[in-house]
Amino acid sequence: MLGLAFETAIPHLISARSLIPNLIVILAVDLGLRHHGVLPAILAFAMGYATDALAGSNPGLNAFMVTMVFLVSYEISSRLLVTNAFVGATVVFFGVIATALGAIAISAGFNALGNTGSILPSLMLQAGISAIVAPMVFSILAGSKRIVGLPARTARE
Amino acid sequence: MRSSFLWRNRVLLASGALLILSLHLVSTGVHPGDLAARPESAFLELIRPIDAAFTNLTSGFSSIVNDYVDLVHVRQENAHLRIQLAQVTSDRARLAELEAENRHLGELLDLKDVLGLKSVAANVIGSDATGLSHTLILASGESDGLLPGMAVLSNQGVVGKIIAVSPHASRVLLIDDHNSALDGLDQRSRARGIVAGMVDDGVILKYSDRSQDIRDGDTVVTSGLDGIFPRGLLVGTIKSVRREGPGLFLRVQIAPAVEFKRLEQVLIMTQPPPHIDDQVKG
After folding, report:
1. What residue ranges do the domains of chain A occupy?
2. How many A×B Cβ pairs under 8 Å?
3. Domain B181-257 has CATH 2.40.50.100
4. A22 within 8 A of A126, measured Cβ to Cβ
5. Are B251 and B242 in contact (CB under 8 A)?
6. Is A32 exposed, middle or buried (0-12, 13-18, 19+ CB in 10 A)?
7. Using one digit for the tens of pLDDT, what is the confidence trace for A38-75?
8. What are the structural domain ranges in chain B?
9. What is the mean pLDDT of each run of 10 residues along chain B (282 residues)?
10. Does the CB of B92 have a partner CB in chain A at under 8 Å?
11. Which of B29, B106, B136, B220 could serve as B172's disulfide partner, Cβ 3.0–4.6 Å?
């Protein structure tokens, strides 16, 4: 909820929206890479649905995209030998772009993707900033998980 | 049990089921009163105090901080005067903020009188969580009489309409969002069209016949035919008209009258506009 408050309050105060990292995608990637179970999948869906309550006009759209990011991260994590911060940052980078374009394609139709040329640079910038911030968020999450006694990494790691 | 197909693929199956549920929600939509609308309303209600606190903190402190920067150079003044000055500066910043707020509310009050319809003012406390859609979060909700579908205006013109409400917060779909549409009218030529947002931040007038005499600089107002906005409210001015290329309709771009990023207070019409016949006669 704090992440969402950050995502809604800050853009209202500063005009450069693309400088704000996409925390929801970062959290979904963290869930997918490190937590393999049904509950994390539900949590990813819930995060997306919470985003829907505060973004756009198509309830379920962000729930779909965030669950998809979780699923892709989970699949990547299941197939790679090591899922370190670099892998996480890479997934976040592509996750932010894919989430945005996917949301536009579903809500406005695939033809609308042809009009995304002007928003692509800012989208790439936001994806880059999210990818840079992601390792820090992962380590903060790992630290807080250790504090509350949850496993910070998957058993394979 | 742990080696069974279901257990091995539990994450995939659960994710698949959640993806199907999401698509179901997207395709059917969520209507006010639905079970699926309750979590949405709860999230909006939860986020309201946090957003309001963020907004209050930053708007007040930014002007105080700016005034304090000037104080850095006043090294010779004694501590007592400095504290007094800081107090005065702080008060001045607060008063300036109140003055600006009063001015905005005064302008909204004028608009309210002009419209002659029941309406309430609300503070803007947040914007869209993803930035891909163009929505705002307001610090007023059902308890203030707001309902989905109500028109939202500012002293500059049409802002959008309410799409979701919780007891003490609501969300507005701005007219420059790609899912927004309202019935518009070129004030000079009386040519009608649908004012719609674009994915790349523009606003266009759709479905205007090629034979229509729409020109750059014309004023676009609401037609009143959509039953949400009263007739004659300012939407924006025509930025460009393209007649070349294939197709039945003109390609008309509009510069919205409202600066959406600078909105602080808005006016929500809690009473639907009168029937279009009455508006035209009036």
Report:
1. 2-7+16-139
2. 183
3. no
4. yes
5. yes
6. buried
7. 899 999 999 898 888 888 778 888 999 999 999 999 99
8. 37-174, 181-257
9. 76 91 83 71 80 70 56 63 72 70 73 74 86 88 91 90 91 91 90 88 87 89 87 90 82 90 87 70 55
10. no
11. B136
Domain B37-174: give its CATH code: 2.40.10.340
Please indicate whether the domains covering B37-174 and B181-257 agree at the CATH topology level.
yes
Tokens 């039945």, residue located: B248
Residue of A1, A50, A103 lying closest to B132 (CB–CB): A103
Q: What is the pTM of this model?
A: 0.76
